[in-house]
Design goal:
about 120 residues, mainly beta, 4-stranded antiparallel β-sheet, about 50% strand
């Protein structure tokens, strides 16, 4: 049974940092791509970052490039999203998602299982 459980969200001031974590089960990260998405109120879900399994390549959305970093721990089957220099526009529900193959992209159709999400609010 595939499961993804996010944690680490919360309220942070602009310029602050948060580290999100996603614990996965039912598959292994060394064979499947994993990604992070977010959805702000009234907006469509958008890809933030993803990590391919075989070659470790990462993709990062332009809006978070240089501020967000995705990483994985194969031994613990967890994926992290380190978010620095947070801005109010980063506010939203963040989801991790399992890819359909080892190679990732940021399209929603490239992912088949999703976590329930964790809320991130950036506000003073």
């Amino acid at each position: 049974q595939v499961q993804l459980v996010e944690s680490g969200g919360g309220l942070v001031q602009p310029g602050g940092s948060l580290r999100l974590s996603c614990a996965v089960s039912g598959f292994t990260l060394d064979h499947i791509a994993i990604g992070w998405f977010r959805q702000a109120p009234g907006k469509e879900r958008e890809g933030v970052s993803c990590l391919s399994s075989h070659d470790g390549r990462t993709f990062v959305a332009d809006s978070v490039k240089g501020r967000f970093t995705i990483s994985r721990d194969n031994a613990r089957n967890t994926v992290a999203l380190q978010m620095n220099s947070l801005k109010p526009e980063d506010t939203g529900v963040y989801y991790c998602a399992k890819g359909t193959t080892w190679l990732c992209g940021l399209g929603i159709h490239e992912f088949d299982y999703w976590g329930q999400g964790t809320q991130v609010t950036v506000s003073s």
